[in-house]
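Step 1: inspect the first sequence and its tokens.
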Amino acid sequence: MSSSINIPLSKLPNFDPGKVPVLGVDSHLPAVAAEYLQPGALRKRFADLPVWVPEVLTEKRFSDRTPLHASVLVPIVMRERPTVLLTERTKHLSTHSGQIAFPGGKVDQDDADASATALREAREEIGLDPSLVDVLGLLPQYVTGTAFIITPVIALVQADFTMNPNSYEVADVFEVPLEFLMDPANHQRHAFEWEGVRREWFSMPYRDSRRQRFIWGATAGILRNFYRLLSA
């Protein structure tokens, strides 16, 4: 087995996921229509789930540590055009440093369930008041290469929320239109080989009024599964 199996991509020498060549773009797949991205339609979808198949469930493993259960909140802000609230992790964190992520973290023994973990972590990370959050449901667990078993919690967030980001964990908070993320024309495929180990991932690069946001890895994989649910 290659020694690189224990090296996260972000820790490889001079690795920049944004510079890895694009193998393909899924513009042949239909976008989710805007009317199905509104709060009422999202509530209906989770109240009566269709038969669907998630596309990405397990990344190639590159950590020998004991798997850890975690939850992330996928916060859909109820604006006229709904958005997804995302964070940029600080660069000094031990895992997924500097990457774009959902608010979330490891399960605490006092958490009642996956939703409780996601809501607690969102409050700790960005100061999101749980009373402004309406949990719709869960996506299937997503296992990262760093051995996190993540439960994504899909939720609606009232647009008048305020934030107080934890500066130790969060470098930035921003929003991306849900319509953009649910259009496969914005979904890129990548692959990278290091010492005989091939890793593949999606990316969804988005430029806002400030700069380019390179959404990739687990965050993009979870969003891709969300697309598969909404397009089923």
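Step 2: inspect the second sequence and its tokens, then contrast the two.
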Amino acid sequence: MSTSSEATTRAVHVRVRSRYLPQRSDPASKEWFFIYTVRITNTGEETVQLVSRHWIITDGAGRTQHVRGPGVVGAQPVLEQGQAFEYTSFCPLPTPSGQMSGSFQMVTKDGAPFDAEVAAFALSEEMEFS
């Protein structure tokens, strides 16, 4: 599995790239720290807003955690045609590898809700941040 992914749902394109941060990790204490950068681009004609997120995080031992919450990094961005929003966040794991996937809950200007897919991407100690 790649440390990057891309998916498009209803003209909302989501690209993710992840990196391992050895300087923030402590393998002796079973703590591996990963960052990921998400870029959400509205390639369609209708204005959309990101209202919440749902992450599915699976560590290298197969344990799965679901994380849900409003917006991303404290924001609920509104994206008009051609606009993009990019942010970086982090994910600590108790194993040196894992994966994430999920969705962003979006709503159109007319109030129609839909989920924009976040395709699965790897979290891997072998891919360090440079």
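Step 3: confirm your contrast with the notes below.
The mean pLDDT is 95. Residues 24 and 69 are 25 Å apart (CA to CA).
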